[in-house]
Design a protein that fits this description.
Layout: E1 5-10, H1 15-25, H2 44-58, E2 67-69, H3 73-85, E3 93-94, H4 111-117, H5 119-128, H6 141-154, E4 162-167, H7 169-179, H8 184-193, E5 201-207, E6 210-218, H9 220-225
């Protein structure tokens, strides 16, 4: 990649985020939602956050170009609302390698659900560590790194420009792992201490050939516009114990 700045945006709050957080708080084993992950839409709060993101986008002195987005509905809706609010006619590039992490047999299970239905996977996770643990039918963070390295290798960007990627919390974290770069322990320590908030902006800037984080999970645009700030951590098998 030849750009000097990358803005990484997590999608706005989805109905799945809200349902998963409620399920964890209520001690349920399963998240009560019957929608394919790729089709989970934004909540009303997520739409409000996307509008605030659009006002942030309109205020940028150097409009990001090009723009990539995950194929998942919640990410595409976030970007579409933001572009419309910013009165921009960009045609984003949809790339399936930016999709959310696939959880396989652990999909829609809460922490208690994993412990109840798949205690062997909880033990495998403890043994392998969160970075390398791959649920049957799912992906590890190392798998995410593989497809994101492929994406970065294919991306053609203008020298000196700024790029925008709208995707998911795990995608943001693993892109930091690749670009900064971080090692396994540094990534997991960082992820345990920090949450990629809904509709937040994380900025990386390249100076003298090295990438540095200049802003992580920025939400000033949400606060300025009075949009709710929501903290929905990622899937339970990657959250700290």
């Amino acid at each position: 990649m030849t750009v000097t700045e990358i803005c990484l945006v997590r999608h706005g709050e989805s109905v799945g985020n809200a349902a998963a957080t409620r399920a964890e708080r209520e001690g349920l084993d399963r998240v009560p939602i019957d929608i394919r992950d790729a089709d989970v839409p934004l909540s009303a709060v997520g739409e409000e956050q996307a509008l605030a993101l659009g006002r942030w986008l309109a205020a940028q002195s150097t409009p990001p170009e090009p723009i990539w987005v995950s194929p998942y509905l919640r990410a595409r809706q976030t970007l579409a609302i933001a572009l419309r609010e910013a009165e921009r006619a960009d045609v984003p590039r949809v790339d399936e390698r930016l999709r959310d992490r696939e959880l396989g047999i652990l999909d829609l299970l809460t922490r208690s659900g994993v412990a109840r239905f798949h205690p062997e996977e909880a033990e495998r996770r403890r043994h392998l560590g969160k970075f390398y643990h791959r649920p049957p039918g799912g992906e590890s963070w190392a798998d995410l790194a593989l497809r994101l390295r492929s994406f970065l290798g294919d991306a053609t960007l203008v020298e000196g420009g700024s790029a925008l990627i709208v995707a998911h919390d795990a995608i943001v974290m693993v892109l930091l792992y690749i670009l900064v770069p971080l090692d396994e322990a540094e990534l997991l320590d960082f992820a345990a201490a920090n949450t990629v908030l809904n509709a937040s902006v994380t900025r990386l800037r390249r100076v003298d050939g090295a990438w540095a984080i200049t802003e992580f999970s920025g939400i000033d645009h949400l606060q300025i516009e009075g949009a709710p700030v929501t903290a929905h951590p990622g899937s339970p098998d990657v959250r700290p114990e």
